[in-house]
From TrEMBL:
Lineage of origin: Eukaryota, Metazoa, Ecdysozoa, Arthropoda, Hexapoda
GO MF assignments: ATP binding; ATPase-coupled monoatomic cation transmembrane transporter activity; metal ion binding; P-type transmembrane transporter activity; polyamine transmembrane transporter activity
Main location as per UniProt: membrane
GO biological process: intracellular calcium ion homeostasis
Keyword Transit peptide: no
Topology in membrane: Multi-pass membrane protein
Source domain of life: Eukaryota
GO cellular component terms, A-Z: membrane
Protein name from the UniProt record: Uncharacterized protein
Transmembrane segments: none
Length: 77
């Protein structure tokens, strides 16, 4: 969020707290974004998986990682 030359970032928690009801947002991720999340923010992976709508331009290994994460969360894939 740009503000007077500064870049502010919002956390998932702050986004969800700002919602009046159940969270109503989705994510679209590329393979590059998926890899960065896995490397630097692994704690966010479960939340990203269940809020993801589009997972595009992913390698076969990244797709397998996504499927494994979803299955760990109890999804049938």
């Amino acid at each position: 969020i740009p503000q007077k030359g500064k870049l502010l970032t919002a956390s998932l928690d702050s986004i969800e707290r700002g919602c009046a009801g159940p969270p109503n947002y989705r994510f679209a991720l590329t393979g590059q974004t998926w890899q960065l999340l896995r490397e630097h923010f692994p704690n966010l992976i479960p939340r990203i998986c269940v809020r993801g709508a589009v997972f595009a331009r992913m390698t076969s290994d990244q797709k397998q990682q996504l499927v494994s994460e979803l299955m760990t969360l109890g999804y049938y894939v």
